[in-house]
């Protein structure tokens, strides 16, 4: 009789163990679903007749032309920034390369150790023909009273030709946090006109 009771108790314990494992798996799946839904939320900014989508947790900042939209998020040692610009298409043989050169010169004057790392022609970004340009620079805090380390920033430009305009979508983030910030870029690119 005692052996039979012990056997029933072991069976019941095994059943409880499996129920706990199943409950933990369901909780993990629900948590993953909630996290994915929260990270995928976007907000729309109405700018000069355009509806541009950007991540809901990012803060919109004041901008001046040719910048249409700039949003940022503090992530790690520096802020991650997404910028959307619209510039006229230059009347040259390769207009996107001319715009890229102009951007490189502007940034090289204002950013420490700015370097273009890679330029890819005839690429596809978020289902659209684009010219991606990867770059890096070092960001330092100009406040002489703060003792902070310089931060290596990584960035990418996506140059998209739309009619007689060039849209430039730029993402910059601290190198260590770039992959996480990169996920925020697709909704912005997809919301631009074709």
Q: Return the average pLDDT rounded to an integer.
A: 86
Assign a percent range to the helix content.
Answer: 25-40%
At the fourth level of CATH, the homologous superfamily of the largest domain is Mog1/PsbP, alpha/beta/alpha sandwich
Strand content: 35-45%
SSE pattern: HEEEEEHEEEEEHH
Count of separate structural domains: 2
CATH class descriptor of the largest domain: Alpha Beta
Total strands: the figure is 10
User: Counting H and I runs of at least 4 residues, what is the number of helices?
Assistant: 4
Category by helix and strand content: alpha+beta
Describe the structure in your own words.
By secondary structure, this protein is an alpha+beta fold. The chain folds into two domains: about 1-40; about 40-190, Mog1/PsbP, alpha/beta/alpha sandwich (Protein Transport Mog1p, Chain A, 3-Layer(aba) Sandwich), CATH 3.40.1000.10. Helices cover about 35% and strands about 40% of the residues. The chain is built from four helices and ten strands; from the N terminus they run αβββββαβββββαα. It has helices spanning about 1-40, 95-110, 180, 185-190, and strands at about 40-45, 50-55, 60, 65-75, 80-90, 110-120, 125, 130-140, 150-160, 165-175. Strands 3, 4, 5, 6, 7, 8, 9 and 10 form an eight-stranded antiparallel β-sheet that branches. Strands 1-2 form a two-stranded antiparallel ribbon. The chain is elongated and about 95 Å long. The protein starts with a helix and ends with a helix. The mean pLDDT is about 85.
